[in-house]
Amino acid sequence: MINAGIIGATGYAGQELIRLLYTHPDVNIVYLSSHSYAGKKLSEVYPNFTGLLDMELVSMDAKKMADDCDVIFFALPHGLTADQISEDILNKVKIIDLGADFRLKDKEVYENWYKVEHSRPHFLEESVYGLCELNREKIKKARLVANPGCYTTCSITSLAPLVTGNLIDLSSIIIDAKSGISGAGRSINLPTHFTESNESFKAYGVGTHRHTPEIEQELSRIAGKNIVLSFTPHLIPMNRGILITAYASLSEKTNSEKLLKIYNDFYKNEKFIRMFPAENLPETRFVRNSNFVDIGLKIDPRTNRVIVVGAIDNLIKGAAGQAVQNMNIMFGISEDSGLDIVPTVI
C-alpha cells in the first residue's frame, strides 16, 4: 500500500483528492493537513465524508509526514509549497505539487507572473511537469512532480498534435477559455459570490492570467521553438468544468478528417484522451466528475483556420485526478487505478 498525506486537504482540489484516494485500491491515507481547520474532523468540514473518513485534520508538518508517507500531495496557493521542500524531504518521500511553484522552469518568469520570490529555485530544473500523456517517462523517475494547471491541461492537450506536426502558424494561436467557479478556489472572494457571478459571464485576467506562461512554456518545448500566444479566461456560472476553444491558422490546406486522424494517432494509446468524430464537439457535462479530456475540431475553410474544442473537469483532470494519475505512474501501478470513473452528465 502507498501511504499518502495531503497538505491543503480542505480546499476544493484537496477534498477531491481525498475522495479519489479513499477508494483507490493501492492507497492508505495517513495524514490530512489543513491550516484553517486543524483539530476538526474532515467530516465536520465536508459532511459527505460522514461515516466514511472521520480523520482529524492536523497542522502542516512536512518533515513528520515525510517520515511516515510514501507520497505527499501539496494543494496550497502559490508561494507556500516551495518553502516546505528540501533535499532531505525529497530523499524520503515523493512530492506532487498541485500548486504553481514548480511548473515554470524560469525563476524570473515565475516571479514576474506570480509577484513572489521563489524560495527554492534550485529545484526548478529537477521538477517534472506532470502532464501525464506528454511526460510519462520523466514522471516515472521523478521525486518532484509539478501538477499542471487546469486551463493549461486542457489547452496543451488540445493543441499538442498541431504544434508537434508543424500544422499551424505558431504565431496565430488564440485560446478562449471558460471555467466553472470552483476554479477560483474555496476561499471567500467577492467576484465569485453567488450574486456576483450568477446570471453573468465575464472575462478576467485578460492578458495577465498566470497560466499563460505555463501554456507557452510547454507548447514551446513540444514545438522546439518559442511560442507566444493569446489566452483569455472567462468565468461562467456553473460549479465545475473547463471548455477551451483554440484558433490557429493552418500552414496548408487540409480537411477535418485528416487532422482527426493525426489526433487519433497521436493519442491512440491514451485512455483519458477521447477524440470526438467529425462535426461533433465536446461539452463540459460529458467529462463531469471524470479524468477525461474530450477534444473535437473543425476547419473553417473560409479563413483557413482550425478550431479545436477541449473539455475537462477542472477539479479532476485539471487537479486531483491528474495528481492521482501522476502518483500511479511514479509508483508503477496501473495508470487508471482509482480513476476508472464514468462521467456524470446530469
Along the chain, the helix and strand elements come as EHEHHEHEHEHEHEHEHEEHEEEH
CATH topology group of the largest domain: Dihydrodipicolinate Reductase, domain 2
CATH superfamily of the largest domain: Dihydrodipicolinate Reductase, domain 2
Largest sheet: 7 strands, mixed
CATH architecture designation of the largest domain = 2-Layer Sandwich
Dominant shape: globular
Number of helices: 11
Structural features, described:
With 346 residues, the chain is α/β, with parallel strands linked by helices. It has two domains: 2-126, NAD(P)-binding Rossmann-like Domain (Rossmann fold, 3-Layer(aba) Sandwich); 151-314, 2-Layer Sandwich (Dihydrodipicolinate Reductase, domain 2), CATH 3.30.360.10. Helix content is 29%, strand content 19%. The chain has eleven helices and 13 strands. A seven-stranded mixed sheet has the order 8-9-7-10-13-12-11. The chain has a six-stranded parallel sheet with strand order 2-1-3-4-6-5, sandwiched between helices. It is globular and about 60 Å long. The two termini are 34 Å apart. The mean pLDDT is 95.
Short description:
With 346 residues, this protein is α/β, with parallel strands linked by helices. It contains 11 helices and 13 strands. It has 2 domains: 125 residues, Rossmann fold (3-Layer(aba) Sandwich); 164 residues, Dihydrodipicolinate Reductase, domain 2 (2-Layer Sandwich).
